[in-house]
Amino acid sequence: MASMAETRQDVDVPEEVVEVEQEPLDAETLARREAALRHVVQFGDPVLRAAARPVEVFDDALRAQLEQMGALMNDALGIGLAATQLGQLSRFLVYRVEPDSPVQALVNPVMEWSSPEREWMEEGCLSLPGVHVDVERPMHVRVRAQDGHGERLTVEASGLEARVIQHEMDHLDGVLILDRTPRDQRKQAMRILRERLQAA
User: Most CB within 10 Å of its CB: which of 61, 102, 159, 197?
Assistant: First the structure.
């Protein structure tokens, strides 16, 4: 997901949340962000609509991928990143909601439970630059997954963390925020994305 500073929130967003004033980025941070975003698959690439395959081998290569993904996410000023956003059809994701928290990795995540309480919030996405749309999601979730060594773990999350995890798990199933927003916002977002594609 996009960073919180980039997302306006009325509800959402693991990368998108309340609208906040953002300090201009210094040249070094901006350069790192632009370099990181060059690795992120952008809207229009069919890999974003593909379902990722379960991870079966837990080795040094996987752990290196997870570490690299975390670094790319941080440099891109995001708070979540799924493997499919880097063109890899493998079921793993990374996220970090709080700037001072360690990056969390979830391999083969499965939604075990989601609360009936739901809320709308604005979300953004590193793969859909310039797009912020309202998305309704459960406020609390419980997810079963594995870490980079294959050890089982369970994550119980609420609020922004729950939203970010759901956003990134959607990516692993080929689902985008465009699929979860009201029709009028989807049409506006598509117009923005078409204009960006034409400009590119």
Answer: 159
- Spatial distance between the Cα atoms of 133 and 124, rounded to a whole number of angstroms: 7
pLDDT per position as a tens digit, 125-150: 999 999 999 999 999 999 999 999 99
Enumerate residues 6+ apart whose C-beta is below 8 A from 53: 89, 90, 91
Q: Counting Cβ atoms within 10 Å, is residue 55 exposed (0-12), middle (13-18) or buried (19+)?
A: middle
Known active-site residue 6: no
Reported as a single tens digit per residue, the pLDDT across 111-128 is 999 999 999 999 999 999
Set 67, 136, 168, 195: catalytic member: 168
pLDDT at 18 over 90: no
**What pTM was computed for the model?**
0.89
CA distances from 198 to 12, 84, 131, 183 (A): 29, 24, 16, 22
Asked if the model's pLDDT at residue 8 lies above 70, the reply is no
Sign of CA dihedral 74, 80, 84, 88: positive
- The mean pLDDT value of the chain amounts to 90
φ and ψ at residue 180, rounded to 5 degrees: -115, 5
Amino acid residing at 123: E
β-strands 104-114, 92-95 pairing: antiparallel
Instruction: Return the structure tokens found at 181.
Output: 């927003």
